[in-house]
Description:
By secondary structure, the chain is an alpha/beta fold. It has helices at 4-21, 30-33, 68-84, 95-102, 117-125, 173-187, 203-215, and strands spanning 42-44, 54-57, 89-92, 129-139, 145-154, 160-169.
Amino acid sequence: MKPIWFTCAALATIVGLAGGCASHPGPTDAARTGPFYTPHNFTAERTLPVGLHRVVLLPIHGGDSMPRETAEGLDPIFSAALQRQQRFEVVELTRDECEKTFGLPDISSASSLPHDFLSIIGEKFEAQAVMFVDVTTYQPYGPLGIGIRAKLADVASRRLIWSFDEILSTNRPEVANSLRRYYLSNSGGKAPFDLSTDALQSPSRFATYAAGVAFGTLPRL
């Protein structure tokens, strides 16, 4: 049996080599130099309407693009992303509550709305607007992909304040670069290794990034 000191030294050497191979990307890495993804297919009012303080976020509508269980897993990801924008108070409508109130577990922005839908949203939840989120395509393994169609509708005027409709895929270099940059920036340099490449294989991390991109185009206060 080899002495314990030898085992520890060997382990330290291995860790040191691993750290050298997986260190943070240098100045020429594409996660720092680009090209980067910029969304274009959205429309928005210049600023949010005065008096818009509370928004009801509907459950994710996945349709035929994913099983219900997958859509349920995306609900908290999109809710957290919307709340991080700090534009308004977000009231997350659960699927049970949605079905109890409107007879459906989720509602698509492209379908006919239940009777008195906007009036109920305004009166029952004391909200000034409602957020629809449809996941139009979903690829949970490489290359990762997600299509997001989202709409923010004003309850009183029944007009669209904002809409977004894009497909993001990691097979596009600008999306992959932006995804890695997002996690590099959010790590704050605290991680000893470059973990941003892990996001290229993580559906949840990719969805977190994509939801942030979509909601980042919302009108400012």
